[in-house]
Amino acid sequence: MISFENDYTTGAHPKILQRFIDSNFESLSGYGTDSYSKQARNKIKLACACPNADIYFLVGGTQTNTVIISSLLENYEGVITANTGHIQVHEAGAIERTGHKILTLPEQNGKILPEQLEQYLSSFYQDNNHEHMVFPGMVSISYPTEYGTLYSKKELEQLSQICHFYQIPLYLDGARLGYGLMSREADLTLPDIAQFCDVFYIGGTKVGALCGEAVVFSKNNTPKHFFTQIKRQGALLAKGRLLSLQFDTLFTDNLYYQISKHAIDMAEELKKCLKEKQYSFYLESPTNQQFIILENAEMERLKKQVRFSFWEKFDANHTIVRFATSWSTTKEEIEQLKEIL
Amino acid sequence: MISFENDYTTGAHPKILQRFIDSNFESLSGYGTDSYSKQARNKIKLACACPNADIYFLVGGTQTNTVIISSLLENYEGVITANTGHIQVHEAGAIERTGHKILTLPEQNGKILPEQLEQYLSSFYQDNNHEHMVFPGMVSISYPTEYGTLYSKKELEQLSQICHFYQIPLYLDGARLGYGLMSREADLTLPDIAQFCDVFYIGGTKVGALCGEAVVFSKNNTPKHFFTQIKRQGALLAKGRLLSLQFDTLFTDNLYYQISKHAIDMAEELKKCLKEKQYSFYLESPTNQQFIILENAEMERLKKQVRFSFWEKFDANHTIVRFATSWSTTKEEIEQLKEIL
Amino acid sequence: MISFENDYTTGAHPKILQRFIDSNFESLSGYGTDSYSKQARNKIKLACACPNADIYFLVGGTQTNTVIISSLLENYEGVITANTGHIQVHEAGAIERTGHKILTLPEQNGKILPEQLEQYLSSFYQDNNHEHMVFPGMVSISYPTEYGTLYSKKELEQLSQICHFYQIPLYLDGARLGYGLMSREADLTLPDIAQFCDVFYIGGTKVGALCGEAVVFSKNNTPKHFFTQIKRQGALLAKGRLLSLQFDTLFTDNLYYQISKHAIDMAEELKKCLKEKQYSFYLESPTNQQFIILENAEMERLKKQVRFSFWEKFDANHTIVRFATSWSTTKEEIEQLKEIL
Amino acid sequence: MISFENDYTTGAHPKILQRFIDSNFESLSGYGTDSYSKQARNKIKLACACPNADIYFLVGGTQTNTVIISSLLENYEGVITANTGHIQVHEAGAIERTGHKILTLPEQNGKILPEQLEQYLSSFYQDNNHEHMVFPGMVSISYPTEYGTLYSKKELEQLSQICHFYQIPLYLDGARLGYGLMSREADLTLPDIAQFCDVFYIGGTKVGALCGEAVVFSKNNTPKHFFTQIKRQGALLAKGRLLSLQFDTLFTDNLYYQISKHAIDMAEELKKCLKEKQYSFYLESPTNQQFIILENAEMERLKKQVRFSFWEKFDANHTIVRFATSWSTTKEEIEQLKEIL
Asked: Predicted ipTM?
């Protein structure tokens, strides 16, 4: 059965697997000290136009969010995020497990708007009781958001300015970063992100890798002994080659962008086809995730022929579902879907 | 340069890489719910002679130790281990990060002996002040130990009996389990371990996999909502196939045992050669790690021709170093070493 | 200057101080094992009509909330509370520090209504992704609430039934319990609370003690080794007499009720006087805290003659302030206030 | 029955209780912002000859150790202490609960010697694997130690120099500080301690107060937002007067020193009497705790007439017990003991 269930149902880009084979019997040092790690870091620095960036490779998204956020916050600080943020909703309390509160702002199309953030921060410091409260210690946004939407360059710049005014870091969760950057509506580039954010990660798991996220500290701001902080959180991979070879491949010959663009092209096809068939969209997403409102009987019918994700109930008779494309979605699958719809 | 630095310098067994390629474009569900996970679990249950075992695949050793120990302990409990245990010495405080104390016993050849454990537990409950102290909540041992040594069947059985008397689980860290089981001196089998221990893990990272450890709960004793506990610790892999395909391969046609046995054969060759050359052993290890006492000038000389690990200082003029073989060590490498020595 | 700033500005009821003097040179055992602790526990059991209650004395409110909540929750669970709950807003992240998320419901006059709770819990278990989320593990309510409002007997009974259906404990924060029970609108008694709640605390700090809160487990449900859990959270007082003597005094001859009733009488006088002077109330509170909306210039004028608390901004020109009475408020203070207003 | 069980069996110095009564109806602001807190801080600064000291009042010892240590350590750091340190043995894992490892050195008469510390720290940084280990982040010593022994001025100065060389703070747990300073063998003064240590606490609970410990940061080194860190650990007392009035009294007219000296005088009497009766001492303690080795039958006999503490087994037939004097021990009690012995 064809699947649009999510963007991590297939394996890795074949070039990655070939690299595993080619290097398999090389004896490499562990824990991210191998030569491919160095090489991959250099390619990413170049792509970010950030020669002083400090780069670490971790395994998965929740792990990456947790390691970064808990390493950057002071004891008495929490992290600001949209109330639909992945760290707030779908990471089983991983941030709180590290002792930190998540401070939520009501999402606007999955985003935090600059005026909301400014309002929150200025109010906090005006509150007489703020020493009895959790201090806002950083801002975490997702690009694209959990609803597939994008921050504009202007919005990101403003968020960045507010964060710097209040001297707290701006962190960007880029689990699907490629799909954001390659969106036809994106006006942000990887160097922009490196400039406006203090730290972000380039998602591999959902963009062609078997696993792996590349953390980028772009402001000479790596937390002290970050290596040890990774280790104590159980996030240090012995065979660092598993991560470095993947990112080295993805950042060779623009592969990361190419496969991301392919997923976006497929998503545009998908949207066109859904629109032609008069399906109703929950919101307008310019990236690889499309949220559709289905009448429940129709949903049951479709389920038998194609895989997609339940998102949430819309009303008694309708459900929001998600169709996602990825680097490995094929034209044939889109064609098949058309026929089914 | 040939390397005996550790047992995780090369990639994965070629059969594993082939499996990645063969299944790469199959659409599989995530988080360990794919069909290969089921298949791999079944093969491991069979190998453990434990049809009711509950099995989870995690990425690395520190992560696995942390997830298991923190899930099994109550708030007010700590974990007993040898003072040379990996969790005590080389995991950067990962256990304490979860709020639990490590209660150490002085190692005996890297091991905890049954009489030590009995003595510790009986004393604890006799202490009038024990309610002001950390309760012993489980026992963690390594097989092989960090010094390459092995528990005998009798020792493991006795530890198991003591734990059950005091109603605390016995946990076995099997990062190098294959190398223990295939040692010529081992009198323990995988079914024995499943019988005597309440939980253990079968190490993949150091025994032919790119990453991955298989956690086995053998007594219908999986902690409640263990899946969620994995997730909140950032240890849940999205593409579970990366782990399941590896363990499915390792537990097909006895591959895990075969490659472990090969490493042991190479270690025996290594030992023979070191003994012939009159090198002095720090202790007698029947597994793939060999600890040698080198005169410092000799160590500097050797370093230029072969890679090995610094372990610790022996005295002002001597150093303990470690030579490790692995599934990928070749006869040629042993021959080359012989020439160098 | 007269003060209605809060209910903890004065010392302790004089009878308590007298008890300190009378017993000062008695040699008493520590940590809550003294004879007065036993005596105080018995009096509280009687007052709760709960002969099997298990009672512990702790020092302060945030500490008590933290110790109870973290001892009752499993690793993967969070606590449900109103978004205005003290644990959510004004305890500096004490709950999250223990690794647990707070799951908020939008307050209704400072309360959680039974239908909200039922809706939240039933939705949670219907969510396909709930294993990636924090499990609701207990419910925490305040009586009176942070806005001085009260749950009715019917509401508490319904909350209790819902909690029991979902098998999670219902916890009641009684920092100002006396002022709730003695309110003219209260239809709940201490035995009712012991019946409907699984655990609650009887606040001393704000009701006549120098410090101290009495934790009551009313269902044979004390967490295992709770003494040790108190100790490891730094909440075990060496000289337990400081707490036991206070609660023994408060629960002798109905002193706790008498002084609470006095505070309520004073609050009713205060309300009458504020209403006569046409002050506008933010909400209707039947307990010792009254929330008034003041025009800003008026607020500045009053500040010079009487102490009260800033609560929050109402709009550009108005502010919500709080006037609180307590066990030690005098008729003369009310008279003086009348003159000022 | 007379009691030498510990130094916290009686109430508070009568002058303290009188102060409670005198100020009882004054309306004072909470959380340590009252006028008596300011006054008490000033007196302590004077006593420490440290006009820039920053002083906080907390309730109890375990709480104080936990708040200080967890606020000063970075995530990846642990605290060095003697293996007999209270935080290691008798605080139920309170430090580890905050996520930090305790790094133990073998005690020498209850102390850490400068050469041990130097050796530990220099070895740590020489270890190739130290990035996989917990970094030593501070040193915690007790004065007097848990065995009643004292650091000399020279030892404290050397420990201080070593800590400063390695840029980690030196912390002194002064639960029984008065009894140390007033010992006939002490060559350290309070100003010396303020000079050599980065932070320490002056114990109240065991030296004449009902509760309370005064934390002194003597080097302009208070952790950022320490007030909030106290709050989030549940250690902020609402009625700060309970602590400030006690310390204000203890540091008026040298009361703290006077009552400490009295306890030492009583301890010297006790020692003399025990020596005359040929009792055998476990070690030589110059402070208020005396450790005696009793033949078990003798111990059982004495138990019936006088209260003392079980410490630990000495051998099959002997037990180490502790006799403690305090500010409230009377000459009559010593006389009675003499008769019993």
From this structure: 0.97
